Amino acid sequence: MTVGSVGSNAMPFELPLYRRTCCLCLVMSRRSPRLEDSGYYGIDREPLISYRETLHRIFRRRKINRHIQPEAIETSNNRNGNRHFIFLILPLCFGLAYSIITLNSNFLNPGVLESPISPIINTKDPTARCKEMEERVRELQNELLRLKQEINSHFLTADSLPNFALQSLGAKVVLHLSSEAHQTKETFTTILGIPLMRPPVHQRTVIQGHSPLPGRCWAFAGGKGHLLITLSHRVTISHVTLEHISKNVTPTGTITSAPKEFTIYGMENLDDKGTHLGTFLYDQNGDPVQTFKTSDNKQGFFNYIKLQVESNWGHPVYSCLYGFRVHGKLAE
Predict the structure, then answer these.
(1) Dist. CA 245–CA 213, nearest whole Å
(2) CB atoms within 10 A of CB 218
(3) How many whole angstroms separate alpha carbon 27 and alpha carbon 74?
(4) In whole angstroms, what is the distance from residue 32 CA to residue 36 CA?
(5) What global pTM score does this model have?
(6) Residue 24 pLDDT class (50, 70, 90 cuts)
(7) Long-range CB contacts (within 8 A, 24+) of 208-213
(8) Range from 67-76, 151-160, 220-229, 289-298 carrying the lowest mean pLDDT
(9) Over the chain, what HEC string results?
(10) Which has more confidence, 50 or 22?
(11) N or C: which end of the chain has fewer CB within 10 A?
C-alpha cells in the first residue's frame, strides 16, 4: 500500500513531498537497526527493555492526604498541641491540690504538732499536751540543777559553802588545848623610857572571818602547832579551808611562815582521840584561800575539830595562821 493510503476502497491519494519526508523521519526514528540487532524490540515491534527510574525512599514520610483542606490540618495540629499541654499541666495541678489539702489539714487539726525538742506528738487533747510540756520543762530544770551541782563540785569555792568554824555563829577556840601564841620581841611603844612589847594576836583571830591583812594573824612558835575549835553546830565535815596572804603583798615576796603540811581530826567530845579526816599540803604558789576535801571513808558527826600543823615553808622562828574554815552538813 502506498504511503498515505487509507484502505482498499479508499481513493488513493498522495501526500505532498515535505509531509512524506516528515513521516518517514518519524518512522525511521523509532526503529534503530542496532537496537533491533540487540533484541530491543519484540515481535509486536514494541521495546522489551524499559529504562524507567524507580525511586526508593530511605526515610519514610508520613502520607498526607492531599484532599484535606488546610483548615482541617491546622485544627488537627492545634488538637495535638492541646493534648500535650494537658499531659504537662495535669501533674502540676495534682501536686498543687495535694499541697493545699495538706496545709488545710494541718491548720484545721491542731493536735498534730511538731516540736524541735521532742518528736511529733499525736494527741488531740490540749490538756494532755500541756501536761507533757510541763513534765518536759520539769525534766530540763532538774537536769540544769544537776549540771550546776556538778560544776560547783568541780569549781568549789569557800565562799559558796557554810562555815561552821565562825565565831559570829557560835564557834569558839579551846585555849587550854591549843598552842600558845608566839611573843615577838618587837617594841610597840615606850612609857617613861620603858619599852612595851607588842601583845600577841589571839587564837580567835583565826575564826573571826576577817579578810587577811599582812601581820594580822595568829603566830605560834616553830613549825609545829595545833588549834582546837568548838564548832557552832554538830556537823559532818566535808571540806576545810586554810587562809594566808599572797606572797605578792609581802615586803620580801615570800610567805615562809605559811603552814605547809597539816592534818585534820574530827572529835565528838574533848576526851575523844579524834578521827583522822585527812592530811593536806598548802601551796605557797597557789591562791591565798585554798579549800580541801576530806576523806569520804571517815564520815561522822563531830562537835570539835583539831587543826595540827606539821611544818611551814621555811621560817625558822614561827608559823602564821590567818584563817581556818570548816564546811559540811548539819546532823539530822
Answers:
(1) 7
(2) 25
(3) 55
(4) 6
(5) 0.53
(6) very low
(7) 208/166, 208/167, 208/168, 209/163, 209/166, 209/167, 209/168, 209/323, 210/323, 212/243, 212/244, 212/245, 212/288, 212/322, 212/323, 213/245
(8) 67-76
(9) CCCCCCCCCCCCCCCCHHHHHHHHHHHHHCCCHHHHHCCCECCCCCECCCCCCCCCCCCCCCCCCCCCCHHHHHHHHHHHHHHHHHHHHHHHHHHHHHHHHHHHHHHHCCCEECCCCCCCEECCCHHHHHHHHHHHHHHHHHHHHHHHHHHHHHCCCHHHCCCCCCHHHCCEECHHHCCCCCCCCCEEEEECCEEEECCCCCHHHHHCCCCCCCCCCEEEECCCEEEEEEEEEEEEEEEEEEECCCHHHCCCCCCCCCEEEEEEEEECCCCCCCEEEEEEECCCCCCCEEEEECCCCCCCCEEEEEEEEEEECCCCCEEEECEEEEEEEECC
(10) 50
(11) C
What pLDDT does residue 160 have? 82
In this predicted structure, the answer to whether residue 165 has a pLDDT above a threshold of 60 is yes
- What is the tens place of the pLDDT at every residue in 83-112? 555 666 666 676 777 767 766 555 455 544
Higher-pLDDT residue of 303 and 75 is 303
CB of 152 within 8 A of CB of 238? Answer: no
Contacts 24+ apart (CB under 8 A), 316-319: 317/182, 317/221, 317/222, 318/182, 318/219, 318/220, 318/221, 318/222, 318/257, 319/219, 319/220, 319/222, 319/223, 319/224, 319/225, 319/257, 319/258, 319/259
Task: Give the three cell numbers for residue 246.
Answer: 599572797
Q: Which of 5-9, 74-78, 207-211, 319-323 has the lowest mean pLDDT?
A: 5-9
In the predicted model, what is the mean pLDDT of the chain? Answer: 75
